[in-house]
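Subject: Predicted fold for WSCD1 protein, 577 residues

User T.R. writes:
Posting the sequence so we have a shared reference for the thread.
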Amino acid sequence: MAKAFFRLQKFLRRTQFLLFFLTAAYLMAGSLLLLQRTRLVIQQGSRGTPANQALPVPDEMTRVGIVDPRTLQSPRPGPRLLVGMDALQEPALDQRHSPHWLMSRNSELRQLRRRWFHRFSSDQEPLQTAGLKAMKHTTEHKGTYMGCFTHDSRERTLKGAVFYDLRKMTVAHCQEACAERAYSYAGLAYGAECYCGNTLPAAASKPEECNSECKGEKGSVCGGVNRLSVYRVEELRAGARRRRNVIYRGCFRAPENLTDTFPASLIQPNLTVEICSEFCSKKEFPLAVIRGQECYCGYPTGRFPLREGAEGLRCSGARNASRAAEGKYCLVYQTPVQDTRCTDRKFLTTKSKVFVALSSFPGAGNTWARHLIEHATGYYTGSYYFDGALYNKGFKGEKDHWRSRRTICVKTHESGKTEIEMFDSAILLIRNPYKSLMAEFNRKYAGHLGYATDRNWKSKEWPDFVNSYASWWASHVLEWLKYGKRLLIVHYEDLKQSLIPKLKEMVEFLNVTVTEDRLLCVENNRDGNFKRSGAKQKNFEPFTQEMKDLINRYILTVDEALRGRNFSGLPREYVPR
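User M.O. replies:
I've generated the structure tokens; pasting them so everyone works from the same file.
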């Protein structure tokens, strides 16, 4: 027995020594590889150098110290284009814009894009947190707690604006958001959802049923399951602040019977936009319609779809609200109240039999398209990635596994053969590359809602970005055209200009039936939470002539490929710039 025990002990000692030796060898090999890669990165030259010189890696990527292993295996010297972490072989000039080269180059960029995307997505979280902290410290609205109430997501009592923050929601955050839009009540549910309104819910619940802790504030209660913790917001903004949230929609021909079209009305001498919009806000309607001294409140409907506006002269003097043109035309304003007829969303009750991608180049409006699809169909969209900023703002499909088939479609920027062939069909969203490149550059340096600084635009990163991402814009479309099984091509510009017809095409492609009122509701909520406010004007042209020549060649290549597959070509505004 002792002899057997001694043999076992001897064997274990040898095994322990062997494991120690293998671990040390592994660490040494890793260190040598890291040093070798770092040396390779440091040896790279700068962009814009002659063809026999190397091109640089952006500063943030040199800290990672990773290059494509294929670079280490290739014995052939020659010019290299380093994009982030991958070293790409520069082709001959006459082959540089061919579809074959673009697709080959795209496969080498793919790993880079994944890592960049996850890195930049994770960077958005501090931005969101910083904004929330600033809001909390600016003004604390200590409203009066009104109690716990029943909450029905389909027939909401608080019918105003809706906000989500699935990680950082607090009572103060919700009250601040509702107060900024001149609402009287703020209600919280599920620990992360905020609802605003001007009417107190009728059905009270037991206090203990509001038992969900706020996601961003331990010890505080933010409603519960189908329960609202309701506060009365004491400090509402001044009238000028409320007026800022009213948006002029245009001059439209008035419907034949306004009282049948609109459920609420007010007749008052010396009627103003402020009086009408405040009246409709209190009635919790998203539209305020003015004709002379008459004020009407309601929604866009089949009788009043807001599709064809009239000339501004038809409503001459109507901004004064007291001189509408002979009663045939009316002024329409958007109140701060959200149109809630299309805000209810859920996951598919059964797994989808058709696996659909919503594919686009970054900066092409994928998030906006997801917003439209979710509100039109009532189902969440998924994502090949995870973006905390999108998840916090209500895109709950972000956290669902992208292959779960519980979402109506899945966002992806991938364009490799394997990734494409996983999907049964796809909506391919294409945007003007000039606008896409600028949008993605803004997102990279300032998040979903910010703008890159002039310093960013004038730095070496911008030409590096254009040189690498412009080819990706082209190869993305080319590979989906080659490997996609069933495609619906949607141009961002067409969707923006003709939202209802194009959205109908997308919904039909997804095999979902929707009502006209729901589509009108989507149009009324078309911007969503991720539209940059205004177009920040730059006092210089960001694209050099060399950049324009490069991008225009890619545009012509993609246009030819689309027509070759019997799709309509790119919109005329794409080329030449």
